[in-house]
Amino acid sequence: MRTVSSSNFATFLGILAILFSSAVFGVAGNLAKEVGALTAGGMAFIVGGTLGLIPLLLSSSRRRDLLSLSRPYFVICGGLFVAYEVFLYLAIAMTADSRQVIEVSILNYLWPTMTLLLSIPILKTRARPALALGLCAAFGGAALALGKGKGLDVGQFRQNIQANWPPYLLALMGAITWGLYSVMTRRLAAGSKGNAMPFFILTSGVLLMLLSAGRGEPRHWSARAMGELAFMTFVTALLTYVFWDIAMRRGRVVLVVALSYFTPILSLLLSSFYLKTPAGPSLWLGCLLVTVGAVICNYSLKEPATCA
Questions:
Q1: Which of 5, 167, 171, 297 lies 20 to 30 Å (CA to CA) from residue 90?
Q2: What are the residues whose beta carbons fall under 8 Å from the beta carbon of 79, sequence distance 6 or more?
């Protein structure tokens, strides 16, 4: 019973992480215009990671739990985490306007589909034929969202990508990287109590700040920017990732990832409202297809007993 209760609590934390992460692009997109995406992300992650280290320094049992984690976990999962943050904030920093921030967010939210897909070879989940339909829906939705209201027009799609392709490529790389991080966390640290997330967050922040030094970001501070940075620090850069890490190791991973397919819709709603950028029909339809694709992928997989 205690194991079941622990699994349910970890799953609940994963759901909270999904809710928190839905606000990332709206807040980060606005901060990118005022202080720069890399600067904002770097500062938030440095402070968030430092705060996360305090419980480790004050608790000998947590330090012992940390040392129980394997070296492959630190190297592989830590590297994937840092890479994802670099891809994500570089993508936001390179966007041309608020609409492109929203388009990048939809590409980024392909990660639930990528997590489910990567769970087949890594976690040995079993796939049904419907998986192919789910993948087509998810990636077709992402392509539709990038069509600038022109639907699935191949020529228009190519023109939009060529106009400013780096953010889209980085967002797609981020989706793949976070999917891989999620399943590798489950593979290398399932059931363990140690939490290395503060180290990963702090490392990401330092690297983002180093990258920001070469981009000449605006850094125009205001009361609103300070409030947004505080939100990113305590919620986005700390609680979201700590909760997600716990869910991936001790929660019901397929259920949590399945619930995460609602993130694109909630994120689009929050981002379009916060950035004052109305989402047209193509964005909503594309976002819906990404969500539906993840749903189909989820129900086409059967989680092995060892991951329940």
A1: 297
A2: none
In angstroms, rounded to a whole number, what is the distance separating the alpha carbons of residues 237 and 31? 14
**DSSP states along 19-68:** HHHTTHHHHHHHHHHHT-HHHHHHHHHHHHHHHHHHHHHH-HHHHHHHHT
Pairing of strands 126-127, 301-302: antiparallel
Q: What is the pLDDT of residues 210-248, one digit of tens each?
A: 999 888 788 888 999 999 999 999 888 888 888 888 888
As a whole number of angstroms, the distance between CA 28 and CA 40 comes to 8
Q: Are 27 and 226 in contact (CB under 8 A)?
A: no
Indicate the pTM of the whole model: 0.86
User: What's residue 150's pLDDT?
Assistant: 55
CA distance between the termini of the chain: 14
Structure token digits, residue 135: 């993948």
pLDDT at position 112 is: 85
Q: Is residue 135 within a helix (H) or strand (E), and if so which, with residue range?
A: helix 130-145
Nearest to 42 by CA among 247, 233, 214, 305: 233
Measured CA to CA, the distance from residue 199 to residue 252 in angstroms comes to: 25
pLDDT digits (tens, 9 = 90+) for 122-177: 988 888 899 999 999 999 998 888 866 555 556 656 776 777 889 999 999 999 99
**Of the spans 5-9, 171-175, 188-192, 218-222, which averages the highest pLDDT?**
171-175
Q: Is 36 left (phi over 0), alpha (psi -120 to 50) or beta?
A: left
The answer to whether residues 120 and 295 touch, using CB atoms and an 8 Å cutoff, is no
pLDDT higher at 44 or 219: 44
